[in-house]
Design goal:
Elements lengths: L1 H11 L2 H13 L13 H12 L5 E8 L7 E9 L3 E11 L19 E3 L2 E3 L7 H16 L6 E8 L10 H7 L9 E4 L9 E6 L1 E10 L3 E2 L9 H12 L2 H4 L13 E7 L8 E2 L2 E10 L5 H19 L2 E10 L10 H14 L4 E5 L5 H6 L4 E3 L13 E3 H16 L1
Parallel strand pairs: 3-6, 3-7, 7-16, 8-15
Antiparallel strand pairs: 1-2, 2-6, 4-5, 5-17, 9-13, 9-14, 10-12, 11-13
Helix pairs in contact: 1-4, 1-11, 2-4, 4-11, 6-8, 9-11
The structure holds zinc ion (ZN).
The site of zinc ion has 5 residues, from loops.
Length: 409
């Protein structure tokens, strides 16, 4: 316990260090080529130098070839410090890439110059995912500065390409260096959570995006009998699809919301003028499906509903899944990663954290697909991807303590 106190005191003194790291990282713009940038090279190189100063036993750069990026690759950095017991590792995996700032007029400051006001740092990337990078890194730094060898082997990974699919990031790492990870490891992804840090994400719903193309016959609006109105068809179909909510209506309290969701979202432009009945309409649906249901069963039900509307209205409807990610098995609520995170959160913040499920879309799914139990956790007011993205310094300090507790205990 004395060791822990020493490390916590050290972390309490890291305010200036946090600000300086955040400024350096924010200034090295890490936009992937799909987001109009040149990749993560400069940011990763800076991190590699910072890690070197902490003399890890292993410091590796695993580069995923990508011609579009600076120097032709996307860098993934791994640093490992051997602990007293080297049989399993504690991983903290964060991503270096960011999303574009969007409409600059909505920013009060330059998104690439991190600014500080009291406890709040503002800038693109300070939360997503530099909060995770800085807190996991400073926890290790504090332990080393106190002259302590952690009980467990500690591994930090800073990966590329999280924001645009992870093909050059975690997916590449697992495909080419899967040997780094072990089912006994504790794997934490500090890239999603809630504002008091009480949510440990262990499960995700399946994700399914569907494009519906409704084809009728265009005609003048004054003579509807000569055409078949595709917008009316789309509207009827959207209403009929509400039936999915009852057909697949079971709930699971692990998730918030506890039910599967089926929502019509985007609709493409049809005719440009008011006095034409449209002959073609395209709309989309976003489905988040509880792991208990098979995605194929949902698609089959959607097709059945569609055929009924087609027959009734004499229209044709094309149903095309445009994105699909089937949920992997949840990380068990009693697995070591959840238990040690919950113990650390209790000690540092004095609250009981709860394992929960979310709507999907984190990189933890890649781990879970390979039966590597990963948990997503961070203390975050969730300003990611928004203008004036910001992050409380006090949250980075408390999260660094949680990491230190997990590394040491
Ligand atoms: Zn992120």
């Amino acid at each position: 316990m004395l060791e822990l106190e020493k490390v916590f005191n050290r972390i309490d003194g890291y305010r200036d260090e946090i600000i300086s790291l955040q400024k350096e990282l924010t200034a090295r713009v890490a936009l992937g080529p799909d987001n109009g940038g040149t990749g993560e090279h400069d940011k990763a190189a800076f991190l590699k130098e910072s890690l070197k100063k902490l003399s890890p036993d292993i410091l590796e750069e695993i580069n995923a070839p990508d011609e579009r990026a600076r120097y032709g690759y996307r860098p993934n950095i791994v640093a490992i410090w051997e602990g007293q017991d080297a049989s399993s590792r504690v991983w903290a995996l964060s991503h270096t890439d960011i999303v574009p700032p969007g409409d600059l007029s909505l920013w009060k400051t330059d998104p690439y110059k991190a600014t500080v006001e009291g406890d709040i740092i503002t800038g693109r990337g300070v939360e997503d995912n530099q909060h995770g990078i800085v807190s996991s890194l400073l926890a290790m730094k504090a332990i080393l500065e106190c002259g302590i060898k952690p009980k467990k082997t500690v591994a930090l990974a800073f990966v590329a390409d999280e924001e645009t699919g992870s093909r050059y990031g975690l997916e590449y790492l697992l495909k080419n260096r899967g040997d780094l990870f072990n089912p006994e490891d504790i794997i934490i992804v500090p890239d999603g959570g809630n504002s008091d840090g009480s949510m440990i994400e262990i499960a995700e719903k399946s994700m399914l995006w569907i494009r519906f193309t409704v084809t009728g016959k265009q005609c003048h609006a004054s003579t509807p009998g000569e055409g078949r109105n595709s917008l009316y068809g789309a509207a009827r179909l959207i209403v009929a699809l509400e039936g999915l909510k009852t057909s697949f209506g079971l709930t699971d309290d692990l998730f918030a919301p506890p039910e599967s969701t089926f929502e019509s979202t985007k609709i493409e432009a049809n005719v440009p003028n008011v006095n034409t009945i449209p002959g073609k309409d395209v709309f989309y649906m976003d489905c988040r499906i509880l792991p208990r249901y098979r995605v194929d069963d949902i698609i089959n039900e959607i097709k059945k509903i569609t055929v009924k509307i087609e027959k009734e209205l004499q229209l044709s409807v094309n149903v095309k899944p445009v994105h699909r990610q089937d949920s992997a098995n949840p990380t068990p609520a009693e697995s070591p990663v959840v238990v040690s995170l919950a113990a650390a959160i209790k000690r540092v913040k004095g609250i009981d954290a709860r394992p929960m499920g979310i709507g999907g879309g984190t990189v933890a799914a890649f781990f879970r697909e390979q039966d590597l139990p990963a948990a997503v956790w961070v203390t975050s007011p969730d300003t990611a991807h928004q203008p004036n993205e910001s992050c409380p310094i006090s949250d980075i300090i408390s999260d660094a303590k949680v990491f230190a507790h997990v590394y040491l205990e």
